[in-house]
């Protein structure tokens, strides 16, 4: 990962033992507590859980690269369980794109209803949810955008340069 200067960051350990990432030449004020991968679709995710006697459904938040709208991606392991696949392919959750029985894409609004439907199944399903931290950040960003739009409408701030 690079800092704002486009130089690879330096990993440092604090007095408390926690890792942080800072600018290697101390030119910019870059600081991060975990690795960031903003370019492309690369991301840091935990390894998949071991699927022994139950099914694993992993959810990830994805951002459309052009429209900048948040979506939810779901993957199933193993993909052969028809009850889980039936829930994931249900039209009420508005699956917009999927690789049949492997990867599904939903609007963010369907996420909570999808979790409820998966928890109601009689089949034992391990659900790897999106951390609540993501939703707090998403709400904060949306609130900032709404406030900025209100400020533009009230002539309190300027729109972004084109």
Automatic annotation (TrEMBL):
<keyword id="KW-0347">Helicase</keyword>
<protein>
    <submittedName>
        <fullName>DNA helicase, putative</fullName>
    </submittedName>
</protein>
<keyword id="KW-0547">Nucleotide-binding</keyword>
<dbReference type="GO" id="GO:0004386">
    <property type="term" value="F:helicase activity"/>
</dbReference>
<keyword id="KW-0067">ATP-binding</keyword>
<keyword id="KW-0378">Hydrolase</keyword>
